[in-house]
C-alpha cells in the first residue's frame, strides 16, 4: 500500500482519460526492483494490467518458475537452463531425432518429449494430439520470443502448467462458455443450439491451444499474460467475445460445420479489440481478478 | 272497336231509358277513367250539341282533370263555327258554373282567346249576351289572368255598350234589354275587379267624341249604381293586377267584392260598414219606387176597367213583384233536382243569423224551421231566400233583414191605393182592380217560378205559398179554421219559442204562415209539381198549367180566390196579419192602408212591444255582439220606417230592373193573351198583337227565352257564391260566439278564483293573527322559563360557592389533622426517647453506685498500699550498692564491633554493584547476538531459497540428463539389439562348418552355454521385439550372452573374452592400474573380430570424439564434475558395499583418461543396480 500512495497521483486521471499502462510500467519496475521477487504481486499485477512488452519475457519466466525470485541466482540459473537445453539438444542430435535442418518447433517438441520421457522410439511415429497442441503453442511462442532457449523453456513450462495446473479447469471451460454466452446474448446461444453447434465449437483450438494459431501473436500474448498469471477463464471470455463480434455472420450461417469452419479461421484484423473487450468482459464478470483461477 | 261499339251503345242508352240513369252515368265515368283519349269527350260534346241532352251535359260538366283539355279543345273548335256557337257557349257556361277543379287552366286555354274574339266580332245579340255572361262568370275564377286580356275585356265592354245604344244589327229592342243587363253586369264586374285600369280605360275610351254619346246614354247611368271603389284611392294599376292580391281571394270572395261596390239594390250586397249607407240609399230608392208604384197604381185605377195591357204601367206596377221574385226560381229547380242538397243547404242555414233575424218578427218561424224543416221545405226556403235575396228590401243583409220590412213594403205598395180609397175600404175585396193586380202579380210570380231562368229567390216563393194558401182559402175556407186550430196546437207543442206568442194570439202570423205553407204543400201538390218542373217546361206547358187555375174558376172566381190573398198579401206583415186574425178591428185598421197608421203601428210594435219580447231570448241564445247587432238592425228599421215618408229620389233605374220589368210585362202579356184567346186560335191570331209574322215572333220569343235562361243561370251562379259566402260568415260568427262565451266563462272562473283568493287571504290573516297570539304566548312562557332558569342558575352558583367554601374548610381540617398527627408522632417519639434515656440513666445510676463502692474499696486499698510503700521506702533508705565500670567497658566493646560490621557491609554493597553492571552488559550482548542470529537465520533462509531455486534448476538439469541418458541407453540397446541379430545370423552359418570339432571340446562349457544359448537367443529376440519393455533384465542376459557369444565366436581369445564380461566387472572394482588396457580391450575387441565390432568401436570412438569435440574442455570438466559427484555418491557406496577394498583416490586420478571406461563401469554399475 505504501507503494500505491507513492504512486503518481495523476494515475487516476490517466486511466480515466484512457492512457493505460502509463503507471503500470513504473509500478512493475518497482515490483521488479525487489530482491527476491514477490510472485504473488506479480501475478496480481499481470492479471490486472497488461504487461509492458519489454518486461513480459522476464515476468513470464519468473511466473513460470524458469527464473527464481532472487536476482542473484538469475544468471546462474539461466546458465543451468542453457546447459540443460544444450544437453538435451545434443542428446537429440546424437540419437538423430533432430538435425540442423529440423525446424525449431519440432526441436522444441522433441526436447519436451525427451524431458517428459515420452520420446517415441522413432521420429517417424505419428504425432499425438498433445504434440499438436505443443507445436501450435511453440509456434506462437517462437514468434514472441527471440531467444530459442528462453522460448523453449517458456513453451515447456507453459505447456506443463496447462497440463498440470489447469487440467481440470480446462475441461469445465465449454460449460462456462455456454453460461456466459447465455448471459451476454441468449439469442445467439439459441441460434447456436438450434444449429447444434455448441458441442462442435473449436474448443480444442480455443482452450487447449489457448488460441495459438487463432489469434495473432500481438493479441495472443495479452491473453497469455492472464493465462500465465493464473487464470484460464480468460479463454472463455475471449471465446465469448469472438462469438459476439462475429455474431451477425454466425447468425447468418445455419450449418454447424460452416460455423465451426468460420470460427477456426476468423479474420485477423481487429483481434486487439476483441481481446480488449474480452478482458473488460472478464473483469466485469469476475470482479477482482486476484481471486480468479 | 268493341269500345267504340260500347260507346255507341252508351250514347243510345243515354236518353233512351231514364230509369237506370245512374248506371249509365257510372258507365260513362268508368270509360272516362279508363280512356284518356279525346274520343269519348268529343263524342259527348257532339251528342250534346245534337240532342241537347241533359245527361250528356251533366256528364260533361262533371268531367275530371285529364279530359279538360279535350273538352276545351272541342269547345274551342265548335266556337269557331257560327252555327254551333250558341249551344257551345251555353255548354261552356254550364261547365264553368260547376266550378271544375281545373278552372285555373281556363286562363291559358285557347278557348278564352276565341271567346274574346267571338265577343269582339260576333253580331248575334243572343250569342253576345250569353258570351258576356259566361265571361262574367269566368272572370272571378281567373282573376290573375286579367293582366293579359284586360284590354280585351275593356274593348268588349266598349263594343257592347256602344252596341246597346246604336243597335247596329237592328235586333229587336227586347234583346237589347238583355244585352244591356249583361253589359251592366260586366261593368260591375270589371269595375269591382280592376277599378283603376277600368276607370283609366273609360277615361281614355270615352274621351273620344264618337263615344261620348254612348257614355252619356249607357255608361253614365251605370256609374250611378256604383260607389267609388276604395282601390281607386289606395291601389294602383299595377297593384290591381298583382297576383298576390288575388291569391287570398276565392271565387265567391271576388263576387262579393264586386257586389259590395254596387249601389244597385238588385246587385248590391251589404256588409260591414257599407250597410247604413247603402240602406239609406235603398230606402230612398224604395220610396221612390213606392211612389212610382203608387202613381202607377192610381193610373191603373184611373184606367181601371179598360183592361188593356199597358206595358209601361205594368212595368212600374210590377216593380215590386219584380224585386221580390229575384231569388225565386232556384227553389223550384232545387226542389226538383236536388232536394237533398237543398236540405243540406238549409241545414247549414237553419242556424244562420237569418233565422234568428226571422225570430225578431215571428218567433215561430225558427221553431218551424228547426222542427219541421223537412216537411215545410217551402217555409224555410221562403225564410231563407227572403233574407238572402233581400226581397229588394232595404234591410239588405240576409242576417238581419226582417220579414216585417218586406211586408211593410208590400203594405206600402198596397197602401197607396187603399189610402186613396180609404172611404171604400169594404169595397176593397170585391174590387176587381186590386184582385186583378194581385192576381197578375201572382201570375207573374208563378210564371217566374216556372220559367224564369234567373236566380231570383225567396219572396216570390213566399208569395207562392201565399198564393197557394190563397187557393187553399179559396177552396177550403171552411176547413181552414179547424185545421189552423189543430196545427197551431201542434206547433205550439213542438216549438218552445212559439209559446210566448201563444197568449198574444191564437193565430200568430208565423203560424199562419206555416199553415199556409203546409197547406200549400199538402193541398196543392200539383202546383208544386208544376213549380218543380218549371224550368224544363215549355211556355206552352206553362200556359197550360196556368190555365188550370184559370178553368178552375171563372173570371170572377180567380178574383175572389185571390181576394183572400189580398188580405194576407196586403197584411203579409205578420204582425198585422196576426192581429188581423185575432182582432178584426185591428185588421181593419191594417187593411185601411193609411200611410200614417202603418208606420205608427210599426213603431209601436217594434219600439215598445215586440223587441222586449224577444230580446231576452236573444240574450239567452246569443252573445252580446249578436244582440247589439240585432238592436242596431231594429234601429235601422225605425229609420227606414221614418224614411218611408221621404219621397224624392233622382236615381235612374238600373238595366236590371228594366229587364225585370220587361220580363214581367212580357209574361203578363203572354198569359193575358193566352187567356184571352182560345187555344186553337192562338196561331192564327199572332198577327193580332204585334203585327209581326208569327215565325219571327216565335223566334224572338225563343231567343228571349234563351237569354232569360242564361240570365237565370248567371244569377244562380251568383246566388251560389253568396251561399258559400254566407256559410263562411256563419262559421265566423259561431266561432266568435263560442269565443265570447268562452271569455265569459273564463271571466266567471276568474271571479270565482278571485273570491277564493280573497277568502284565502282572509283565512291567512286569521291564521296569522292566531299565529301571533301563539307566538306571544310562547314568548311569555319562554321568558318565564328563562327567568326561572336564571334564578335556578343563581341558586346553583350560590350552592356551588358554599360547597367550595366547605370544601376548602374540609381541606383545612384535613391539613390540621395531619399536622396534629405529625405532632402526635413526634410526641410519641419523644416519649419513647425519654423512656429510653430514663432506662439508660437508671442503669448508669446503678453503675455509678457500684463504681462508688469499688472506689471506696480501692481507696481503702490505696491507703493500705501507701502505708506499705512508706514501709518499703523506709526499708530502701536503709540499703545502698555501685556497678558502673563494668558497663562502660561493655559499651566500648560493643561500639568497636559495630564499626567493623559497618565496614563489611560497605564492601559487600560495592561488590554487588559491580556484578550488576556486568550482568547488564552481558544481557545487551545477548540481545545483539539474538538479533544477529535472526538476521543470520533470515539470510540463511534467503540463501536456502536461492539455493533451492538453483537446486531446482540443477535438478531439472539432472532430470534432463537422466532422460538423456535413458535415451542414449535406449539407443545403445537398440543398436546392440541389431548387432546381435546380425551376429546370430552369422553364427548359424559358422556352426554348420565347425560343428563336430568344437562340440567335443567345448562340451562341458557348451553344455551350459549351449543350454543358455537358445534361451538367450530367444530372449534376445524377445528384447528385439519388445523394445524397451524389459531393459534391466535383458541387460544382464544380453551381457552374458554377448560374452558367451563372443567367447564362442572368438576362440583365440577366450580368456579375454571371458575376462571381458567378468573382468570388466571385477577389474574395475579390484584393480584399476591397467586403466589404459581396458579401453584397448574395448576398442580392440570388435575391430579384430568383425564388421560389427568395427562398428561398435567406431561408435564408441565417435562418441568420445563427439564428446571431446562438441563440449570441449568445459564440458569435460562439467562432466567430470558431475561424474565425480555421482561417483562420490552412488558408486562409491555401492563399491563400498560390494567389494570391501576400494578407495576413491585412484579413480580420481584416472578420471580424465578413463571417462569412457567410467561410463562403461557406470553403465555396468547401473546394471548391477538394476540387476
TrEMBL record, chain A:
Which GO terms are recorded in the biological process aspect for this UniProt protein?
cellular response to starvation; negative regulation of cilium assembly; negative regulation of TORC1 signaling; positive regulation of protein ubiquitination; response to growth factor
**GO molecular function of the protein, one example?**
GTPase activator activity
The answer to whether keyword Cytoplasm applies is yes
Ranges for the Rab-GAP TBC domain?
50-231
- UniProt-annotated location(s): Cytoplasm, Cytosol; Cytoplasmic vesicle; Lysosome membrane
One Pfam annotation, family name? RabGAP-TBC
Q: Which PROSITE patterns match?
A: TBC_RABGAP
Claim: Cytoplasm is one of the keywords in the record = yes
Purpose? Non-catalytic component of the TSC-TBC complex, a multiprotein complex that acts as a negative regulator of the canonical mTORC1 complex, an evolutionarily conserved central nutrient sensor that stimulates anabolic reactions and macromolecule biosynthesis to promote cellular biomass generation and growth. The TSC-TBC complex acts as a GTPase-activating protein (GAP) for the small GTPase RHEB, a direct activator of the protein kinase activity of mTORC1.
Q: What is this protein called?
A: TBC1 domain family member 7
Species the sequence originates in = Crocodylus porosus (Saltwater crocodile)
Automatic annotation (TrEMBL), chain B:
**Basic and acidic residues: compositionally biased ranges:** 549-558, 1162-1171
Any single GO BP term: protein stabilization
This protein's species is Crocodylus porosus
Q: What is the designated name of this protein?
A: TSC complex subunit 1
Q: Which UniProt keywords apply?
A: Coiled coil
Listed Polar residues bias regions: 580-590, 1145-1156
Record InterPro entries: Hamartin (IPR007483)
Quick one: where's region Disordered?
Answer: 357-462, 539-590, 996-1062, 1133-1171
Question: Which superkingdom is the protein from?
Answer: Eukaryota
Q: Which cellular component, as a GO term, is one annotated location?
A: protein folding chaperone complex
Amino acid at each position: 500500500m505504501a507503494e500505491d500512495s507513492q504512486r503518481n497521483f495523476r494515475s487516476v486521471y490517466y486511466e480515466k482519460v484512457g492512457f493505460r499502462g502509463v503507471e503500470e510500467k513504473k509500478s512493475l519496475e518497482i515490483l521488479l526492483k525487489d530482491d527476491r521477487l514477490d510472485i504473488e504481486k506479480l501475478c496480481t499485477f499481470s492479471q490486472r494490467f497488461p504487461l509492458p512488452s519489454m518486461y513480459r519475457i522476464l515476468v513470464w519466466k519468473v511466473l513460470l518458475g524458469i527464473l527464481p525470485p532472487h536476482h542473484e541466482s538469475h544468471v546462474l540459473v539461466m546458465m543451468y537452463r542453457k546447459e540443460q537445453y544444450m544437453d538435451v539438444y545434443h542428446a537429440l542430435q546424437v540419437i538423430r531425432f533432430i538435425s540442423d535442418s529440423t525446424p525449431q518447433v519440432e526441436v522444441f517438441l522433441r526436447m519436451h518429449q525427451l524431458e517428459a520421457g515420452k520420446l517415441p522410439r522413432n521420429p517417424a511415429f505419428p504425432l499425438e494430439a498433445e504434440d499438436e497442441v505443443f507445436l501450435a503453442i511453440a509456434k506462437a511462442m517462437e514468434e514472441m520470443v527471440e531467444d530459442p532457449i528462453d522460448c523453449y523453456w517458456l513453451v515447456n513450462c507453459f505447456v506443463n502448467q496447462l497440463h498440470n495446473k489447469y487440467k481440470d479447469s480446462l475441461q469445465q471451460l465449454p460449460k462456462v462458455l455456454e453460461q456466459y454466452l447465455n448471459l451476454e446474448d441468449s439469442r445467439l446461444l439459441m441460434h447456436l443450439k438450434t444449429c447444434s453447434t455448441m458441442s462442435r465449437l473449436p474448443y480444442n483450438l480455443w482452450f487447449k491451444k489457448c488460441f495459438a494459431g487463432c489469434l495473432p501473436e500481438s493479441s495472443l500474448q495479452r491473453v497469455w499474460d492472464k493465462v500465465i498469471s493464473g487464470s484460464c477463464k480468460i479463454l472463455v471470455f475471449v471465446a465469448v467475445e469472438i462469438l459476439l463480434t462475429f455474431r451477425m455472420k454466425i447468425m447468418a450461417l445455419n450449418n454447424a460445420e460452416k460455423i465451426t469452419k468460420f470460427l477456426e479461421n476468423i479474420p485477423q484484423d481487429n483481434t486487439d479489440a476483441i481481446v480488449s473487450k474480452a478482458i473488460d468482459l472478464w473483469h466485469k464478470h469476475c470482479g477482482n481478478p486476484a481471486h480468479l483461477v | 272497336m268493341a269500345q267504340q261499339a260500347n260507346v255507341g251503345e252508351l250514347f243510345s242508352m243515354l236518353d233512351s231509358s231514364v230509369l237506370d240513369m245512374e248506371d249509365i252515368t257510372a258507365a260513362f265515368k268508368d270509360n272516362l277513367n279508363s280512356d284518356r283519349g279525346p274520343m269519348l269527350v268529343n263524342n259527348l260534346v257532339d251528342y250534346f250539341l245534337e240532342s241537347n241532352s241533359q245527361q250528356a251535359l251533366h256528364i260533361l260538366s262533371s268531367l275530371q282533370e285529364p279530359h279538360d283539355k279535350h273538352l276545351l279543345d272541342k269547345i274551342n273548335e265548335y266556337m269557331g263555327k257560327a252555327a254551333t256557337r250558341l249551344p257551345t257557349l251555353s255548354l261552356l257556361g254550364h261547365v264553368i258554373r260547376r266550378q271544375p277543379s281545373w278552372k285555373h287552366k281556363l286562363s291559358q286555354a285557347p278557348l278564352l282567346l276565341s271567346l274574346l274574339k267571338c265577343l269582339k266580332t260576333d253580331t248575334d245579340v243572343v250569342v253576345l249576351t250569353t258570351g258576356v255572361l259566361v265571361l262574367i262568370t269566368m272572370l272571378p275564377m281567373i282573376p290573375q289572368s286579367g293582366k293579359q286580356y284586360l284590354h280585351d275585356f275593356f274593348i268588349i265592354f266598349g263594343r257592347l255598350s256602344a252596341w246597346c245604344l246604336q243597335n247596329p244589327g237592328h235586333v229587336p229592342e227586347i234583346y237589347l234589354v238583355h244585352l244591356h243587363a249583361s253589359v251592366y253586369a260586366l261593368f260591375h264586374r270589371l269595375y269591382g275587379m280592376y277599378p283603376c285600369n277600368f276607370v283609366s280605360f273609360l277615361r281614355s275610351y270615352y274621351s273620344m267624341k264618337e263615344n261620348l254619346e254612348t257614355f252619356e246614354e249607357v255608361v253614365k247611368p251605370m256609374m250611378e249604381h256604383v260607389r267609388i271603389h276604395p282601390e281607386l284611392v289606395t291601389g294602383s294599376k299595377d297593384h290591381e293586377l298583382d297576383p298576390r292580391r288575388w291569391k287570398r281571394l276565392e271565387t265567391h270572395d271576388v263576387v262579393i267584392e264586386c257586389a259590395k261596390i254596387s249601389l244597385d239594390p238588385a246587385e248590391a250586397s251589404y256588409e260591414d260598414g257599407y250597410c247604413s249607407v247603402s240602406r239609406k240609399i235603398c230606402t230612398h230608392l224604395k220610396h221612390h219606387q213606392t211612389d212610382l208604384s203608387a202613381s202607377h197604381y192610381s193610373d191603373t185605377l184611373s184606367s181601371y176597367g179598360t183592361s188593356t195591357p199597358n206595358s209601361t204601367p205594368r212595368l212600374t206596377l210590377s216593380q215590386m213583384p219584380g224585386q221580390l221574385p229575384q231569388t225565386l226560381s232556384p227553389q223550384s229547380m232545387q226542389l226538383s233536382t236536388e232536394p237533398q242538397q237543398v236540405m243540406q243547404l238549409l241545414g247549414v242555414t237553419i242556424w244562420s243569423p237569418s233565422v234568428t233575424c226571422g225570430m225578431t218578427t215571428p218567433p215561430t218561424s225558427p221553431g218551424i224551421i228547426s222542427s219541421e224543416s223537412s216537411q215545410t221545405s217551402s217555409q224555410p226556403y221562403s225564410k231563407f231566400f227572403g233574407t238572402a235575396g233581400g226581397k229588394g228590401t232595404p234591410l239588405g243583409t240576409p242576417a238581419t233583414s226582417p220579414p216585417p220590412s218586406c211586408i211593410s213594403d208590400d203594405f206600402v205598395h198596397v197602401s197607396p191605393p187603399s189610402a186613396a180609397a180609404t172611404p171604400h175600404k169594404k169595397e176593397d175585396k170585391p174590387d176587381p182592380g186590386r184582385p186583378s193586380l194581385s192576381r197578375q202579380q201572382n201570375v207573374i210570380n208563378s210564371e217566374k217560378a216556372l220559367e224564369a231562368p234567373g236566380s231570383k229567390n225567396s219572396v216570390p216563393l213566399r208569395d207562392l205559398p201565399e198564393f197557394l194558401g190563397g187557393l187553399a182559402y179559396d177552396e177550403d175556407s171552411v176547413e181552414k179554421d179547424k185545421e189552423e186550430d189543430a196545427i197551431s196546437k201542434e206547433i205550439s207543442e213542438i216549438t218552445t219559442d212559439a209559446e210566448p206568442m201563444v197568449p198574444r194570439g191564437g193565430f200568430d202570423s208565423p203560424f199562419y204562415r206555416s199553415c199556409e205553407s203546409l197547406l200549400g204543400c199538402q193541398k196543392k201538390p200539383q202546383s208544386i209539381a208544376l213549380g218543380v218542373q218549371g224550368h224544363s217546361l215549355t211556355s206552352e206547358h206553362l200556359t197550360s198549367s196556368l190555365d188550370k187555375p184559370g178553368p178552375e174558376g171563372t173570371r170572377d172566381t180567380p178574383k175572389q180566390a185571390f181576394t183572400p190573398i189580398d188580405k194576407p198579401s196586403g197584411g203579409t206583415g205578420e204582425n198585422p196579419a196576426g192581429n188581423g186574425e185575432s182582432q178584426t178591428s185591428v185588421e181593419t185598421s191594417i187593411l185601411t192602408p193609411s200611410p200614417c197608421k202603418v208606420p205608427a203601428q210599426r213603431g209601436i210594435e217594434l219600439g215598445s212591444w215586440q223587441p222586449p219580447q224577444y230580446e231576452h231570448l236573444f240574450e239567452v241564445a246569443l252573445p252580446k255582439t249578436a244582440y247589439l247587432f240585432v238592436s242596431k238592425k231594429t234601429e235601422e228599421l225605425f229609420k227606414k220606417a221614418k224614411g218611408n215618408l221621404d219621397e224624392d229620389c233622382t236615381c235612374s233605374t238600373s238595366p236590371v230592373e228594366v229587364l225585370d220589368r220587361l220580363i214581367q210585362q212580357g209574361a203578363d202579356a203572354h198569359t193575358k193573351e193566352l187567356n184571352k184567346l182560345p187555344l186553337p186560335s192562338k196561331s192564327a191570331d199572332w198577327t193580332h198583337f204585334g203585327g209581326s209574322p208569327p215565325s219571327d215572333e216565335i223566334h224572338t220569343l225563343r231567343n228571349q227565352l234563351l237569354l232569360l235562361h242564361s240570365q237565370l243561370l248567371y244569377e244562380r251562379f251568383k246566388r251560389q257564391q253568396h251561399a258559400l259566402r254566407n256559410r263562411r260568415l256563419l262559421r265566423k260568427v259561431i266561432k266568435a260566439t263560442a269565443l265570447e262565451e268562452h271569455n265569459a266563462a273564463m271571466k266567471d272562473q276568474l271571479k270565482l278564483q278571485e273570491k277564493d283568493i280573497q277568502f284565502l287571504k282572509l283565512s291567512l290573516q286569521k291564521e296569522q293573527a292566531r299565529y301571533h297570539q301563539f307566538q306571544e304566548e310562547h314568548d311569555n312562557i319562554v321568558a318565564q322559563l328563562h327567568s326561572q332558569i336564571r334564578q335556578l342558575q343563581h341558586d346553583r352558583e350560590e350552592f356551588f360557592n358554599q360547597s367550595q367554601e366547605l370544601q376548602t374548610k374540609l381541606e383545612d381540617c384535613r391539613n390540621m389533622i395531619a399536622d396534629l398527627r405529625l405532632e402526635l408522632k413526634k410526641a410519641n417519639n419523644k416519649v419513647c426517647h425519654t423512656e429510653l434515656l430514663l432506662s439508660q440513666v437508671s442503669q448508669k445510676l446503678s453503675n455509678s453506685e457500684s463504681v462508688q463502692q469499688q472506689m471506696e474499696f480501692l481507696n481503702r486499698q490505696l491507703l493500705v498500699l501507701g502505708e506499705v510503700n512508706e514501709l518499703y521506702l523506709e526499708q530502701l533508705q536503709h540499703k545502698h550498692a555501685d556497678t558502673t565500670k563494668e558497663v562502660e567497658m561493655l559499651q566500648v566493646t560493643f561500639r568497636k564491633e559495630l564499626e567493623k560490621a559497618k565496614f563489611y557491609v560497605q564492601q559487600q554493597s560495592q561488590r554487588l554493584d559491580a556484578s550488576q553492571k556486568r550482568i547488564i552488559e552481558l544481557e545487551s550482548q545477548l540481545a545483539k547476538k539474538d538479533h544477529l542470529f535472526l538476521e543470520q537465520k533470515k539470510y540463511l533462509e534467503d540463501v536456502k531459497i536461492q539455493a533451492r531455486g538453483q537446486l531446482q534448476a540443477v535438478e531439472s538439469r539432472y532430470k534432463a540428463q537422466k532422460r538423456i541418458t535413458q535415451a542414449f541407453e535406449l539407443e545403445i540397446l537398440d543398436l546392440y539389439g541389431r548387432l546381435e541379430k546380425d551376429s546370430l545370423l552369422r553364427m548359424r552359418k559358422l556352426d554348420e562348418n565347425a560343428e563336430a570339432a568344437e562340440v567335443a571340446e567345448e562340451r562341458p562349457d557348451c553344455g551350459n552355454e549351449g543350454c543358455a544359448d537358445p534361451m538367450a537367443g530367444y530372449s534376445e529376440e524377445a528384447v528385439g521385439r519388445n523394445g524397451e519393455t524389459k531393459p534391466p533384465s535383458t541387460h544382464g542376459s544380453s551381457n552374458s550372452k554377448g560374452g558367451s557369444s563372443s567367447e564362442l565366436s572368438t576362440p583365440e581369445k577366450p580368456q579375454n573374452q571371458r575376462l571381458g564380461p567378468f573382468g570388466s566387472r571385477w577389474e574395475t572394482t579390484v584393480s584399476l592400474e591397467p586403466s589404459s588396457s581396458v579401453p584397448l580391450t574395448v576398442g580392440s575387441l570388435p575391430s579384430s573380430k568383425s564388421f560389427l565390432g568395427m562398428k561398435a568401436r567406431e561408435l564408441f570412438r565417435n562418441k568420445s570424439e563427439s564428446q571431446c569435440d562438441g563440449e570441449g574442455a568445459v564440458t569435460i570438466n562439467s562432466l567430470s564434475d558431475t561424474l565425480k559427484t555421482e561417483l562420490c555418491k552412488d558408486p562409491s557406496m555401492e563399491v563400498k558395499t560390494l567389494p570391501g577394498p576400494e578407495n576413491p583416490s585412484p579413480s580420481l586420478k584416472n578420471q580424465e583418461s578413463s571417462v569412457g571406461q567410467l561410463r562403461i563401469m557406470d553403465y555396468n554399475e547401473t546394471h548391477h543396480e538394476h540387476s
